[in-house]
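Task 17 of the worksheet. Students: predict the tertiary structure of the chain below and write it out as C-alpha cells. Keep your answer in the requested format; marks are given for formatting as well as content.
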Amino acid sequence: MVESFQLFKSILVASITPFKTKHGLLCVSLGIRFYVKYLLHCLLQTLSYIMKKQKIVGLPPGAIVYTGDRALEKIFIHYMQYDEETIIEEDYNNHDDAVFQPLHENKVDWYDVRGIHDTRLIEEMGKVYTIHPLILEDISDIHQRPKFEEYERGIFIIVKALARQEGIGEVKTEQVAIYFREGMVVSFQEMESDLFEPVRRRLQAKSGRIRGRGADYLAYALIDVIVDHYHNILNGYEDQIETLEDRVMVEQKAVDKNKIHQLRKELGFIRKQIYPLREAMGKFSRTESALVIPNTIVFVRDLYDNMVHLMDTVDAYRELLNSVYELFLSEVSFRMNQVMQVLTIVSSIFIPMGFLAGVYGMNFEYIPELQNRNGYFIFWGVIATIFVGLLFYFRQKKWL
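Model answer:
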C-alpha cells in the first residue's frame, strides 16, 4: 500500500508541473482515480480476510472451512487401484461423478484430489473412509505448517511443495495433504499442476519396487517427489550465487545489491518451509505405528537425511550470500578509496600552486619578484618543479 501511495504521489507531482496546460487536470484526475481504486481493492481484500476468519472463529473442532483463494474452477480426481500384477485407473472431473470404491485386501487404493475448495467432497470422503474430523479440517486449511500426525485409523502428513518462477524470482508454496492407512492413500493438491506425475508413471510402468509395496511406501514416494523439487530449486540458487560473485568482482551495480537481498529473502522463506518438514520427517522416521512397516522406515530415514542436507544447503547458501554482500561492500569501499586517493593527490599537487598564485596575485603596489623581467617565467618554472617533484615523491611512496 505504501508503494502505491508513492506511485500516486509521483503521478500527482508530475501532473502539477504541467498544470497550466490542458493535460494537467486530466493527469490529476487519473492519479486520484487510480489511488481510489487501489484503496477499494485493499478494502475488499481486508473484508474477505476478516470474513474467512469470522467463519473459523467460534466453529467447533473439525469444522471444514476452506481458507484459501479458489485456485481451480473445478476439482479433478485421479483414482488408482493396484497390486503387483494389476492396475486400474479412473478419472473424475467433478464431484458428482466421483465413485468411492470399497477397499480391497492386498491392493492399494490411491485417490489424488486436485483442488481442495470443495469442502463437501472432503466431508463425503471423510464419511466413506472414516477419516478423523480434525484431519478433514486441516486438509481445507491451507495455512497449516508441515506436520506428521498419528491417528487410531491412519497417519496424516502435511507437506509444502515449492515452485519458483524464474522470470519473477518469487517462491510460491502449495499445500499437499496426505492421509494413508492400510491399503489406502488419499492425497490433496491445492493447485492444478500434477506434482505426482513421476510416481504415477512408475506405477503404470511397473518400475521399481513401488507396485509390490503397501500404502506406507506410496506415501513415502509422494513426499520424496516433493523433496526432489526442493533440490532442483536450490540447485538453481547455486548457479545464481556464483554468477553474482563473479560479477561483483568486476563491477558493482545497484541491481546486484538488490539481487543479493532478493535471494537472501527467498532462501529465508525456503528455510521456513524446510525446518518444520524436517521435524515432521523425523517423527515419520521414528514412528512405531503398525501402519508403517520396518522396510519403509529405512527409506523414510533416508528422506529425513535429505531434509537435513537441504537445511544445511540453505544455510550454506545464505552464508555465501552474506559473503557476497560483504564482498560487494568491500569492492564499493575500495573503489571509493581509489577515487579519494586520486582526488587527494590532485589536491596535494594544486595546493602549493594555489598558494603561490594567491601570494603573487595580491594587489600590493610593491612585490619585489614582480619587478623582475623574467618573473613570469620563473613563476612557471617553480610551478613545474613543484608539480614534477610531487609526482616523483608520490611514485616513490607508491601512491600512484
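Marker's comment: The longest strand covers residues 170-181. The chain has a mean pLDDT of 81.
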